Amino acid sequence: MDTGAAAQTGTGSTGHAARLEKALGVVLGTAQIPLRLRAWDGSEAGPPDAPVLEFKSRRALRRILWSPGQLGLSRAYVAGEIDTPGDIFAAFTALSSAGKFAEPGPFRPLSASELWLLLRTAVRLGAIGPNPAPPPEEARIAKKGRMHSRRRDSAAISHHYDVGNDFYALVLGPSVVYSCAVWPDDGPGATEPPADGLEGAQEAKLDLVCRKLGLKPGMRVLDVGCGWGSFALHAAAKYGVSVVGVTLSREQAGLARKRAAEAGLTDRVDIRVQDYRDVRDGPFDAISSIGMSEHVGRAQTPAYAAALFGLLRPGGRLLNHAISWNAGPTSPDPDSFIPRYVFPDGEMISLGEMVAALESARFEVLDVEALRRHYALTLRAWVNRLEQNWDEAVKLAGAGRARVWRLYMASSAIGFDNGLTGVNQVLVRRPGGEEPPLRRTAWM
Fold first, then answer.
1. pLDDT at 176 (0 to 100)
2. How many degrees, rounded to 5, is the angle at CA 377 between CA 375 and CA 380?
3. Any long-range contacts for 162-169 (C-beta under 8 Å, 24+ apart)?
4. Which of 5, 66, 111, 344 has its Cα between 20 and 30 A from that of 221?
5. In this structure, how many other beta carbons lie within 10 angstroms of the beta carbon of residue 387?
6. How far is CA 96 from the centre of its chain?
7. Cα radius of gyration (the chain)
8. Does the domain spanning 155-442 belong to CATH 3.40.50.150?
């Protein structure tokens, strides 16, 4: 037998890929892995036409041995010990369809017999050793106080958003809008964003929010979680309103203030580093909360809704734009990649829970619009920008952080594609004051 050929197919004793395939099958709980595995010795195993997942070192398997599930694989990917040399969406789609990854909720732990099989394979592959330290990009905020205290929420926001404004602008585009765009209707088969359409789609989303809120010149608006000020600037410039924007990120606030000054809008845009719970200068005519309430937490959502109700004048509208958990009674795994690396302490709740919290705060629901497919398209557009500017992204934020974002955005796009997660705009009003329009034509 040609030992070189055997190494490439994973069928010979010199190749590690066949054993690696068995080890990953144990972790995933399936004998059929829809991936082509490439080991650090160059050997390969698995379906020849499947997307490739490359293990660059034994250290990757050691991480999986110590954390057998999504967390171990994620740590190895962020550290550069696992890679997807081909189409990242194809590889992650295949992985997410395999075994335990296809099951929503927390990763089902290995049985004693499965752990023994994994350990025995790791011994044969020379992967036994101490638990590698997590990559430095992993969040460490557990000592920052109780969950969703002001101090700990500030630390969580800082971990995610204070990465560098230049890095975010590179990924998100000149509008620096960090929430799903609203794309034109290209039919039910559209799976890729139109070329160069991101900026127009983001402006369409900002304008949609303004119209849903019924903004008119002279109104006073609160933007909760204002990011880099994109909505505040759009609303002030296009609709003649005054906006108070609050964020817990100092880097976001700094750029938002700079953008307001450059646009000549400092008299109408007030950007603050402030917790929404500390806003005392209401009432406001309208409130926008775009991609912020995911940071609030399930237990705190009723208090969040009540606080915003108290900041609105009678008849005023609130637009809550938030990601939702669509996988039924299960909950996202708090020990998985996104809570550890992207949104520490973040919690996705269902649309029903959000609407219930808003109604319990005495809001009247006016409209609900699902934008799930829009976010899948937006994430793909962001991944495209990251890939096109990869070297610059690494220069700005480091290879580990860039890999965190590649993994986060690509896997999230797949989650929206398959319906595990959704995103919804819920428009509500505080009863009293001016009546809402009879039909939705005012904003649709």
1. 94
2. 110
3. 162/249, 162/250, 162/251, 162/252, 163/251, 163/397, 163/401, 164/251, 164/396, 164/397, 165/228, 165/251, 165/252, 165/254, 165/255, 166/396, 167/393, 167/396, 167/397, 167/401, 168/228
4. 344
5. 12
6. 16
7. 24
8. yes
Using DSSP's 3-state secondary structure scheme, residue 319 falls into strand
Q: What average pLDDT does the segment 171-179 reach?
A: 93
| Domain chopping of the chain, boundaries | 3-124, 155-442
Query: For residue 117, is pLDDT > 80?
Result: yes
- What is the distance between the alpha carbons of residues 165 and 156, in angstroms, rounded to a whole number? 17
CA torsion 42→43→47→49, rounded to 10°?
Answer: 30
| Tens of pLDDT, residues 263-275 | 999 999 999 999 9
Is cis: bond before 334, omega within 30 of 0? no
Beta bridge partner(s), residue 429: 317, 364
- Which tens digits make up the pLDDT trace of 59-109? 999 999 999 888 899 999 999 999 999 899 999 999 888 877 777 767 778
Q: What pLDDT band is residue 5 in, cutting at 50, 70 and 90?
A: very low
236 in Cβ contact with 267 (< 8 Å): no
Q: Where are the alpha helices (DSSP H) in 274-425?
A: 301-311, 337, 351-360, 372-388, 390-397, 399-417
For residue 406, is pLDDT > 80? yes
Give Cα separations from 165 to 68, 141, 155, 227, 253 (angstroms): 35, 22, 17, 11, 10
Q: What is the pTM of this model?
A: 0.89
Helix axes 112-124, 17-28, angle to 10 degrees: 160
First-to-last alpha carbon distance for the chain, in angstroms, is 68
Distance CA 51, CA 359 (A): 46
| Chain centroid offset of residue 148 CA | 19
Partners of residue 53 on adjacent β-strands = 37
- Confidence class of residue 164 from pLDDT cuts 50, 70 and 90? confident
Structure tokens at 88: 């990242």
For residue 292 the two structure tokens come to 């912020």
